Amino acid sequence: MRETVHVPLGERAYDVVIGPGLLVEAGALIAPFLPRPQVAVVTESRVAALHLEAFKAGLAAQGIGCTVLELPPGEATKGWAHLAQVTEWLLDQKVERRDVVVALGGGVIGDLVGFAAAILRRGVRFVQVPTSLLAQVDSSVGGKTGINTAQGKNLAGAFHQPSLVLADTEVLGTLSPRDFLAGYGEVMKYGLLGDAVFFHWLEENAAAMAAGDMALRVRAVKRSVEMKAEIVTRDETEQGDRALLNLGHTFCHALEAATGYSDRLLHGEGVAIGCSLAFALSARMGLVSQEEPSRVRAHLQAMGMKSDLSDIPGDLPSADALLNLMGQDKKVVAGRLNFVLARGIGDAFVTGDVTPEMVLDVLRAHGG
Ligand code: GLY
């Protein structure tokens, strides 16, 4: 049940290996990258409690030693203080230019450790071992690394591709149903933005996948990674097409800001609602028929996911205030809001031709 997706970026090319049981085989898979049998592993305490022993045993089986830094879990870890801590810890471990740093965890750890690897000695290699569905299908692939600042999320960072990604689909079994479904928001996004057949497959199979079917999980992660790899290969540094991956994200970032980046709304939940609203906006602009947003919403509801503003617990700011928060998004170019809209399921495109009135209409129609 093992799959490999190659990301063909010339001298920065790498493989994403997907399947159950990869943690215990990590040593054999990482060994070819090592100039000496030693790695520095950065993880967080929740992931460490669940997976660190298996990972260390996999390294030890190949005679690879490791030192481990455990950080606190949660988004607050992804800031300057922990970037400094990780970087200085790696220096204390005497990590050299050819050594490999391992990021074992979800998106927070992958983004933070990837950024530390990018700046350490002007760039050391790193391996992503993503443990959340969101990290497996999105953040561990494509080389975006970074941290949050007081001004917003992911505002300091670097493009730094990993040398290898090991997506062990067995570890997804330790996620809470809510975290799994939040990651599923990003899986569904791939179908919506570029593969109608995949979206249809998800309509048929995603419930069984969420219930634990491993073959379906491998297939869904593989197709998502293939799509991400294809887009990143076309546009590594987001000069154009890579922005398609931001389907649903302009709405999502405003909603995350409005809910204080709290437990009220997980990022993947915001993406799911954002996709639903992006299709509603596409219908409002006459690009798709009303059936398309209805189909997106129906799928989210069938999966037991949030699909609308009213599904977010607690009060939200007004539609005008949400629109204002979209203006803070880093996808603003020359003061214009950039949106990813669709001409149909599986056919997304990027546009700056959205007026504030249309966005307000859609937010108001969906409870904003
Ligand atoms: N998560 C969006 C990207 O990697 O471009």
Topology:
Blueprint: E1 3-7, E2 14-19, H1 26-30, E3 38-44, H2 45-60, E4 65-71, H3 80-92, E5 100-105, H4 107-119, E6 125-130, H5 133-139, E7 144-149, E8 152-159, E9 164-168, H6 177-194, H7 196-210, H8 214-234, H9 249-258, H10 267-284, H11 291-302, H12 319-326, E10 339-344, E11 347-351, H13 356-365
Parallel strand pairs: 2-9, 3-4, 3-5, 5-6, 6-9
Antiparallel strand pairs: 1-2, 7-8, 10-11
Helix pairs in contact: 3-4, 5-6, 5-8, 6-7, 6-8, 6-10, 7-8, 9-10, 9-12, 10-11, 10-13, 12-13
The chain binds glycine.
Residues 138, 142, 144, 242, 245 line the site of glycine (GLY).
What are the defining features of this structure?
binds glycine, alpha/beta, 2 domains, Rossmann fold, two-stranded antiparallel ribbon, seven-stranded mixed sheet, 368 residues
Compact overview of the structure:
This protein has 368 residues and is of the alpha/beta class. The chain is built from 13 helices and 11 strands. It has 2 domains: 171 residues, Rossmann fold (3-Layer(aba) Sandwich), CATH 3.40.50; 189 residues, Dehydroquinate synthase-like, alpha domain (Up-down Bundle).
